[in-house]
Design brief:
The complex is a heterodimer. By secondary structure, chain A is mainly alpha-helical. In chain A, 52% of the residues lie in helices and 6% in strands. The chains are: A mainly alpha, B alpha/beta. Chain B: It holds the Pfam family F-box.
Chain lengths: 188, 316
């Protein structure tokens, strides 16, 4: 079950329409926090679900926000695309308070998202999900030849690497020359 | 849909590499110099070990699994993992190991995958030169070797040269040597693994036996006499002597029924209460041995047989 408020585009979130359900009624009311990605869509997530992320868990531990403060100050993750953050939030909700099974089937299989997902999960420090994602990345080259791996993982050949290095050196040289000329001009 | 792996931050690359097995990482290392370097910097999931027994293949041990890289003369087979036999799940990866280029390939594995442990080394007629070089590399790099297997070669000269090197090598678990040596051969171990098994051990003298710290010792075709074995047992009986020794098996034509060993004339076996069976780690089983006791109370079992191949067996 998703706790996401799709379409909310302001930094201050509106009242969420749904909230995560728990099997047993907790004795202490569960606290919620709010996160948004590049698209500013705010997701309401329970502290329990967010515990998967060492980064967010650390932030929460230090803040001691009230519910109101948390609502007014969603955690901004401007470097993470909205749809990727959605995937991560969904995963955290699905695995709230549970250990991750060795073969997690709750993850999206779209390979086009995998690169960004790995970066986001790495940034958010969600260890179990990161291991799973890295396994998915590794699986992409199972049984492949170096030639095929080069294509799948977009690995430049030695010649391409050398050409890129030369180009970078050339550019750096030009920039340095430009800076010297500018400095000389300023001196005049 | 491709993903740009090398754009991952370094720590993430490491996480991905750790999910790859040796076949996958070997293929990746062959993609470019940059990927090879990334793998070297990234490290591998388990501490990999390597084994060598011929010039045609290299084994990489990763945890409980072994991965075989085997030379093929057919380039179209390179990197395409194949089964040994249809009915057997074990596989191997055909690769190019050029003639005279085995050491380069060996070093490629050591360097690329930062391997600093050898599971076992074994020789064949054709790879003695390479084995000598590998031995030197392990000494230079202080690489630990689990087991060393030296098979019996027609031309023993190379093996004799290699034996000298074994004292510099860090062999931890065992040495098994089947080589038959000329009668003037001499070798003195200055460092020992946990066990030694020398099939033709006439050169392994009483002094070496009395100072051997191994857990298991097996000496075929030795030159030990009843007197030597008596001296050994007298020393063993003293508290604190041979603290590691659990199993000793010696074959020697010089064992006879002329001189007593611990006051007993061979053959030595328990005839009063037969049916006792003793073994060490399930092997070297002996039936109806005699019980002997060390000064500190440690119990051991002894049996000496005569016949075509007189044999002394001792298990602690």
């Amino acid at each position: 079950m998703s706790s996401t408020e799709q379409g909310t585009s302001s930094a201050a979130p509106a009242e969420p329409t749904t909230a995560p359900e728990s099997a047993a009624a907790p004795e202490v009311p569960e606290s919620f926090y709010y996160v948004h990605g590049k698209d500013k869509v705010v997701h309401k997530v329970s502290a329990g679900a967010l515990q998967h992320s060492a980064l967010i868990h650390g932030m929460i531990s230090n803040l001691g926000y009230t519910e109101e403060q948390a609502k007014a100050n969603p955690f901004p993750f401007e470097n993470i695309d909205g749809d990727i953050l959605q995937m991560v939030v969904d995963w955290c909700n699905q695995h709230k308070g549970k250990p991750t099974p060795p073969e997690d089937t709750n993850l999206p299989k779209q390979k086009e998202k995998l690169f960004d997902l790995v970066l986001a999960v790495n940034y958010l420090e969600i260890k179990e999900l990161l291991t799973y994602c890295c396994k998915q990345v590794a699986m992409m080259v199972k049984g492949k030849s170096p030639e095929e791996i080069r294509e799948i993982w977009m690995i430049p050949t030695d010649a391409e690497d050398e050409a890129a290095e030369k180009e970078a050196k050339k550019r750096a040289g030009k920039e340095a020359a430009g800076e010297t000329a500018a400095a000389a001009g300023d001196a005049k | 849909m491709p993903i740009a792996l090398l754009k991952f931050p370094y720590d993430l690359l490491q996480d991905v590499f750790q999910q790859c097995n040796p076949y996958e990482l070997y293929c990746l290392s062959k993609c470019s110099k940059r990927t090879q370097k990334s793998i070297t910097l990234g490290g591998t999931r388990n501490n990999w070990k390597i084994s060598v027994s011929s010039l045609k293949s290299i084994l990489v041990h990763c945890g409980k699994d072994s991965y075989v890289f085997r030379h093929t003369t057919h380039p179209y087979q390179y990197f395409k993992t194949r089964r040994e036999f249809e009915s057997v799940p074990s596989s191997y990866m055909p690769i190019d190991i050029p003639v005279g280029g085995f050491i380069d390939v060996f070093l490629y594995f050591l360097d690329t995958f930062r391997i600093n442990s050898v599971e076992w080394l074994g020789n064949t007629e054709e790879n003695m030169d390479a084995l000598l070089q590998i031995g030197k590399i392990t000494v230079q790099r202080n690489i630990e070797i689990g087991y060393l297997f030296i098979y019996d070669l027609e031309d023993e000269t190379d093996v004799m040269g290699f034996m000298a090197l074994t004292n510099q090598m860090n062999i931890t678990n065992g040495i098994r040597c089947w080589q038959t040596f000329p009668s003037n051969f001499q070798h003195k171990f200055t460092r020992y693994p946990k066990w030694i098994h020398l099939k033709n051990s006439f050169w392994f003298n009483a002094e070496q036996l009395l100072n051997c710290p191994c857990i298991g010792i097996e000496l075929g075709d030795s030159s030990f006499s009843n007197r030597d074995l008596n001296v050994f047992l007298q020393k063993w009986k003293k508290a604190g002597e041979f603290p590691n020794l659990r199993s000793l098996k010696i074959e020697s034509k010089n064992i006879n029924d002329q001189i007593p060993i611990l006051g007993m004339i061979p053959p030595i076996e328990n005839v009063e209460h037969p049916r006792v069976s003793v073994s060490f780690n399930g092997g070297n089983r002996m039936f109806n041995p005699v019980r002997i006791t060390k000064d500190d109370g440690t119990v051991a079992w002894l049996k000496v047989e005569l016949g075509k191949k007189p044999r002394f067996q001792f298990i602690v």
